[in-house]
Amino acid sequence: MKILHVVTYISPDGAYGGPVRVAINQAKVLTELGHDVVVAAAAGGFEGSLPAEFDGFPVRLFPARRLVPKSGFAGLTSLGLLRWLAHAVRGADVVHVHMARDMVTLPAAAIALLRNKPLVVQTHGMIAPTKHPLARPLDCTITNPILHRSSTVLYLTEVERGDLIARSSKTLTLQQLANGVVAGNYLAGEQLTGANPRPEVLFLARLHERKRPLFLVESAAQLANHWPSARWRIVGPDEGEGAKVEAAILAQNLTEVMEWEGAMDPSYTLMRMQEASIYVLPAVQEPFGMTALEAMAIGLPVVVTESCGLAPVVRKNHAGIVCGDSQHEVTQAIDTLLRNPNLRIAMGKHARKAVENQYSMQAIGKRLLKVYGDATGHKVAA
């Protein structure tokens, strides 16, 4: 089967986050299962010409252009990508679009429909309710018609499913699909050598307001005197909070124990996580939390809030601590894990086992092939 994946934006610093990781992981496993997969995206931030490979997988990348100033990823488009897609979709058996309200994936999905190709859209929690004044007209004219005409709409959580149903005046063909992760031989350091006398508390995600990296700075300020040997690290591209993080580290006199390391090539994420003892994602309304899942996969205990899509999995499997959204509750959860090294090591083991049992890419690849088979009307061999 020839499968075409489209995702909004690929860059060397992983600025677009989880959807890119998901698309690449899916493409890799589908290729391993014997299928012909292409991943296409708008791109930027690379030195020289755009690469033909990303995170070890062949990709078709095209220069991104910003149509709307100060609009984040929603204002990006790529005329080169859209021109290429107009021809490329003809050779695809199914088109899988990792869709958001943007001018890359919405036109890509529309092109697939105009070519009468089976279309699978995966929304990654990105078509959520919003008060943005342009969202309603955009949804009425473009987003909702695409969802209605898609062969299948893939969702992550029951919250996302409810949002999709509530927004639609027609019946959608909905199927749940979890994110998957490939941990390989990576394993958290404390799983190999026991409790680290200098434990590292790690935030690795985009520095965006919703991710709340400033919460980790405040937690460090409150706990640094209690745990002077602890190290506090923030890793990720700046999405509006970078200057605030740097200023807060200075204002709280944390420069000896805390550092923002900047952005990182996504292919090094798991390697970097190995150095940590605790992974913290204080984000609110996090649809799933791909970096939290990756941390769990290598045996790190995680701290996530109640509104994270992974919270039920973390709680059920004793894979970390699920806390409320307040600063005090996040700080208290971190303190608990710093105070109890045996607990965090045990939770890390539970986390790794949970990922192995529930989020293996082989199982997700086979599930996707069933989705594609339903979309095309032909059984697809796994």
UniProtKB/TrEMBL annotation:
Gene Ontology terms for molecular function: glycosyltransferase activity
Domain Glycosyl transferase family: 197-353
Protein name from the UniProt record: Glycosyltransferase
EC number of the protein: 2.4.-.-
Organism lineage string: Bacteria, Bacillati, Actinomycetota, Actinomycetes, Micrococcales
Residues covered by the Glycosyltransferase subfamily 4-like N-terminal domain: 17-168
Pfam families from the UniProt entry: Glyco_trans_4_4 (PF13579), Glycos_transf_1 (PF00534)
Protein species of origin: Kocuria oceani
Tagged with keyword Magnesium: no
Glycosyltransferase keyword on record: yes
Keyword list, A-Z: Glycosyltransferase, Transferase
